[in-house]
């Protein structure tokens, strides 16, 4: 079994080297898809919603993976040649002040508007209501992930690590979004 895992890992690293953007996009799409399947099952959906799954995988493939790819390349350029805890802290702070708020806002809009098919007014209202608590929760969780990512992960594996953790975060966001839908249906 370990030979199979090692062989797969070597092939994955080779693809990451030869086609970094494509590999990161596909990886993010698959991981977001897996997190959506898990979120659907946890939230009690009996039959897998394939349209929703497709749209979530599209989010990972077209946005999350490429965004992470270019974000980490940009961070490496901004802090070129700089190492140490101070640099890691600056990277984490920069990420948390820029991409974290944007990514959570974009996800909430994408999910409400495209995945759930809500009207813009409802999406905007939900974002106004839930975004502050989502972002505050993100600031309690993601700086630790960012620290580990910038401190211990080589550049080529940062998007993979981030995408893996983000798949867990997406389960949280999916369940948060679903809990609002369930509350609206009960009212």
From TrEMBL:
A Pfam cross-reference name: Mpv17_PMP22
Chain ranges passing through the membrane: 53-71
Keywords: Membrane, Transmembrane, Transmembrane helix
GO CC term, one of those recorded: cytoplasm
Superkingdom, natural source: Eukaryota
The UniProt record lists the keyword Membrane: yes
InterPro entries (alphabetical): Mpv17_PMP22
UniProt topology in membrane: Multi-pass membrane protein
Annotated localization: Membrane
Family: Belongs to the peroxisomal membrane protein PXMP2/4 family.
Stated name of the protein: Peroxisomal membrane protein PMP22
């Amino acid at each position: 079994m370990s030979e199979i895992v090692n062989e797969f890992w070597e092939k994955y690293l080779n693809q990451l080297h030869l086609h970094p953007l494509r590999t990161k996009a596909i990886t993010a799409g698959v991981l977001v898809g897996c997190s959506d399947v898990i979120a659907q099952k946890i939230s009690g959906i009996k039959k897998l919603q394939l349209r929703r799954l497709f749209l979530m995988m599209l989010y990972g493939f077209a946005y999350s993976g490429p965004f992470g790819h270019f974000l980490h390349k940009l961070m490496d350029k901004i802090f070129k040649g700089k190492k140490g805890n101070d640099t890691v802290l600056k990277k984490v702070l920069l990420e948390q002040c820029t991409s974290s708020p944007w990514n959570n806002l974009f996800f909430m809009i994408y999910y409400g508007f495209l995945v759930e098919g809500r009207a813009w007014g409802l999406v905007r209202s939900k974002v106004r209501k839930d975004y502050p608590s989502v972002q505050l929760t993100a600031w309690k969780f993601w700086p630790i992930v960012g620290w580990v990512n910038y401190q211990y992960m080589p550049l080529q594996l940062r998007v993979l690590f981030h995408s893996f953790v983000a798949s867990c975060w997406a389960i949280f966001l999916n369940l948060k979004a679903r809990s609002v839908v369930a509350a609206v249906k009960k009212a």
